[in-house]
Amino acid sequence: MSTAVATPNIALVKYWGKRDEDLILPLTGSLSLTLDVFPTTTTVTVTAGADADDVVFDGASSTGAAAGRITKFLDLVRAQAGSTAPARVQTRNSVPTGAGLASSASGFAALAVAAADAYGLDLDEQALSRLARRGSGSACRSVIGGAAIWHAGTDDASSFAEPVHGPALGMVIAVVDAGAKAVSSREAMIRTRDTSPYASAWVASTTADLAAMRDAFTRGDVTAIGELTESNALRMHAAIMACRPPIRYLAPQSIALFDEAARLRAVGLEAYATADAGPNVVFVCRDGDVDAVRDALAERFEAGRLVAAHAGPGAHLISEAAA
Ligand code: DP6
C-alpha cells in the first residue's frame, strides 16, 4: 500500500494543444508554479486476487469515465512493472474537481507517485514526471516542487518537467465558480486545433513567450514574469473563444478580476491575472505580497472565495500514519 500527496500547479506560460494525443506530447513547452494548497491524497494497493481495479473517489466507488482513465493509466504502470495485478485506488481531493483548478494535475501526479511505488518501480523525478504526463499533461509539472518547466520534447523520453530557478512567487486564487466546466480541456484543445483560426498563432507566440519567460526567471524580473503571464493567458483564451462552435471559459466576473489586477498595479501593488480552462482567476505576485494582494482583492470580492497560496512541494510519498 503506497500513499502520495500532490498539489495543483498554475501555468504562467500555458499548455494548450497536443501533437500526440496518446503519448500526451504538447505542441509547446510550458512553465508553472506548483502550489501548497488543495492537496490530492491517493493510496494505491495492489490487490493480486481481485478481478479488476477498484477506484474510490472521496469514499465512493466509481465506474465512470474518470475510473476508466485511471485503469488506462495503471495499465502503463503495470506494463513497466511487468505485472497484471489489479489495484485499489483511493483518492481524496480537496480541489473542486473540473473547475479549472487543475485537479487532474494533482490527481495524476499523486497517482503516478503512489502507483509506481505500489508496483515496485524505482523511478527518478524525471521518469515520474513523464509517467504523470501520460495521465494528464499538466500533471507532469505537479511532480516538481515550486516553479517547473515542461519541455515539449519530441517523444516520450524527451517530454518531462524539471525545476526552474527564479524569484519567490505567490498566488491568490479567486474562486468564481467551483462547478464542473461545460467542455473539458481535452476536448477544447482538439477543437482549438481543428477550428480556431488563431491556433497556429497561439503555438508560435507561446514558444516565444516561453523563451522570454525563462529569461525573466533567470533575471528574477517579476514585472516581466507577470506581464508575460497575463498576456499569455489572454492569448490562450482568445484562441479558445475563436473556436466553432465557440467555447468561452471566462465569466463576466473573471474579466472584472483581470481589471482588478490592473487596479492593484495602478496603486503600486504588483499583481497579474491568469486563468485556466474555467472561470476562476489566479493572481501572481511576489511571494511577500500575497497577503496584501488578498486583502486588496477582498475590498471588491468575497473574502471567503480568495485562497492565498505559496510555492509547494512536488508530488511525494507519505507514510500511512500521515495519510
Ligand atoms: C488550461 O493537463 O488538464 O490548465 O493533458 O488533456 O489532461 P490533458 O489536459 P490538462 O490541461 C491543462 C490546460 C490548462 C493550461 C496549463 O495547465 O498549462
What count of helical segments does DSSP give?
9
Query: On the 0-100 scale, what is the average pLDDT?
Result: 95
Strand elements, count? 16
Largest sheet: 6 strands, mixed
Structural class: alpha+beta
Distance from first to last alpha carbon: 11 Å
CATH class of the largest domain: Alpha Beta
Percentage of residues in DSSP E strands: 15-25%
Binned, the helix content reads 25-40%
What order do the SSEs take from the amino end to the carboxyl end, as H and E?
A: EEEEEEEEHEHHHEEEHHHHEEHEE
The low-confidence runs, each spanning 5 or more residues with pLDDT under 50, are: none
Q: Which helices and strands occur, and which strands form pairs?
A:
Layout: E1 2-6, E2 9-13, E3 18-20, E4 25-26, E5 30-34, E6 40-46, E7 54-57, E8 60-62, H1 65-81, E9 87-93, H2 103-118, H3 125-135, H4 139-142, E10 147-150, E11 161-163, E12 169-174, H5 185-195, H6 199-219, H7 222-241, H8 252-266, E13 271-274, E14 281-286, H9 290-297, E15 306-310, E16 316-318
Parallel strand pairs: 7-9
Antiparallel strand pairs: 1-6, 1-16, 2-5, 3-4, 5-10, 6-9, 7-8, 10-11, 12-14, 12-15, 13-14
Bound molecules: ligand DP6.
Ligand DP6 is lined by residues 11, 14-16, 24, 30, 102, 104, 136-138, 185-186, 276-277.
